[in-house]
Queue: 2 jobs
Job 1
Amino acid sequence: MHVLIVEDDPLIAENLYDFLEARGHQCDFATTLAAARQLLAGATIDALILDRNLPDGDGATLARSLRSAGKMLPILMLTARDGLDDKLAGFDAGADDYLAKPFALKEVEVRLLALQRRCASRLGEGPVRLGLLAYDPSAQEIRCDGELLVLPPKAIRLLAVMLPHPGRLFARRELEIAIWGHEQESSDNLRSVLHTVRKALGSGAVEIQNVHGLGYKLVAA
C-alpha cells in the first residue's frame, strides 16, 4: 500500500515509516494537516494513518473533509485520545478504525490491510474495467472483450486486487496476503498464479509486468 502517516511525533512517525517500508509498503509522512492535504492532493494514497493532536488542529477535521468530498480512502486514527467519547468522535468524523497509543507496529499493519480489503469490497459493487478487461465482483467473473475467462479462484482474486489500480506497483508479499491471507514460504506459488493469469490474457491489451526486485503491476499494453 501507499500509506500517508500524519503524525507530529518524530519518533512515532519514524518507527511507523521504517516498519511499513520494511514490510513492502510505500510511505509518506506529514506533521501538519496542511502538509497532509498537500500530499493527498498530489499523490495516490491507499490508506491514511491519522493522529488527532496536530500542531494546526484536530486530525478529525481532515477525516471529515475527506468524507465530505466523497473520498473513500481508508482512515486509521492513531492517537493518544483513548476515551470512549474520543473514539466516537473519531468514527463520527469518518475514521474506519481507531487505535490508541501505545500500539504494536504489527497490529497497525494488520488493521491497514483489513481496511484495504474492506474498501476494495465497497468499491467492487460494480464492474471494474481496464481496457478490454472487466471484473464483475458480484458474479466473481473476469471477461476480456466480453468473453468469459475460465480462471481458478486464486487467479480471479489476483486480478480483483490489481484491476482497480492500473499501473500501481504491488509487492510480492501484498499480493500473497490478498490471495492466500498470509505470506507464502516459496515465491513459486505466486509465480504459478501469475503464469495462469498471463496465459489467459495472452497478448491482449492488458498485461502484468514484473518490476525486478520490487513487484508487479497491471498495465494497458
Job 2
Amino acid sequence: MKTVLFDMDGVVVNSEDFWVELEEETIFPEVGVDDVSADEITGMNYREIYDYLDSEYGTTATKEEFVAIYDEAAKKIYGERVSLMNGFHDLLDELRDRETEIALVSSSPHDWIEIVLDRFDLDFAEIVSAEDIDVPGKPEPAIYEYAAARLDRRADECAAVEDSENGVESAVRAGTYCVGYPNGAKELDLSAADVVVSSPAELREELLSLRAPTESR
C-alpha cells in the first residue's frame, strides 16, 4: 500500500457528532423531516442528503434553502468547533517518511475542506471532493476510484480510512484496503471494512504496518 486516502469528517476532524446533533435538533425539523437515523446519511454529500431526504421522507424546503442552511452551519462547525485527530500531524510525517502518498477524499465541498486545511495547517498530495465527480458519491465507489486515478494508482494499491457505513461501502466497493475508524458517539456498523481500529494509536499502528519493509499483504 503506497497510498493512504483519508476521509475528512469523523476521521481527520471530529465533525460528525456536531453534524448529527445539528441535523437531528435543528436542520431536519426545520425542513420537515423527522426520525432519520445517522447511518442513513452519514458520509453522504450534503446535496445528496437533500435528494435522499426529499425522496424518502419529503421536505418542506427547496434544495437551495437546504444548501444555504448547511453552508452557514459549516462555517461554525469547521471554523470554531471541530478539533484535529490526536497526533495527526505526526502520523502524516511518519507516513511521508516512509514515502507514502497521502490524499484527502471527502464528501464535503471544497469550501468546507479549505476551512479545515487552513485552520489546522494541513497539506495533502491530492484533495478530492464529491464536487469533483459528476456521478453519485458515497456509498458509490466512484470517488475512491477517481482519487486513486488522480494519484496514478489503482484503488487496490490504496488504503482508505473511513468512519461511516456509507464511506466504508464506497471504499470497499472501489477495491481499497479499508480501515474502519469509528470516531463518533453514534454506533455505526463498520464490519464491512478490512479492519476496524478504535483509537488514533491503533490507526497509526495499522497504517504504518502497511509500509513496513517486512510486511506483505
